[in-house]
């Protein structure tokens, strides 16, 4: 009896976690970020489940390209989902080399959402450069990628990476912060994007997927620009 109750409780928690997301009323714009780890995606099907936008992994480091990036970019466009590309920044290659990789993979297209640079220790190389060295390479990356995209990039920062390098205090860019379930409480300014879950499950995607929301006072999709703080969180004219 006790074992059966434990199994039912675990199943209930799993089902709750796999469907939980911040309320639409508080955060009307919600979406996902994906890579080849999600496999083939039925983009039209997931759009019907409240996916308002998607960020798709394009590149990593100086020489890796996500094998499903081009297919995901094309299929999400066909489904009418606003989408953008992100780059996983490695700590053991130069910013210029990594920017060249991203630029070669991602088309110059003003309809895309702002580019994102993913800054985290998980899955990164063992190198741990000093703060000045890291900021130098990151600025080199941003200068090239932003010139290509024609807009500011977004910084995706985990709490651990931000604690180690205080990137948001040194580089004034919109923030995408990760904090499961509760809203992020770190970073040098208000966040534009919040990664709220890494356990969402949707029909049309095999396995779990990251779920994100946009700050309620930022009309992100209409602007095609991220909001850096309250002063920039104005709505576009109708």
From TrEMBL:
GO terms for biological process: carbohydrate catabolic process; cell wall macromolecule catabolic process; peptidoglycan catabolic process. PROSITE patterns: GLYCOSYL_HYDROL_F25_2. The keyword Hydrolase applies. PANTHER family: LYSOZYME (PTHR34135). Belongs to the glycosyl hydrolase 25 family. GO terms for molecular function: lysozyme activity. InterPro entries: GH, Glyco_hydro_25, Glyco_hydro_fam25_subgr. Keywords: Glycosidase, Hydrolase. Pfam families: Glyco_hydro_25 (PF01183). This is Lysozyme. The lineage of its organism: Bacteria, Pseudomonadati, Pseudomonadota, Alphaproteobacteria, Sphingomonadales. It comes from the Bacteria.
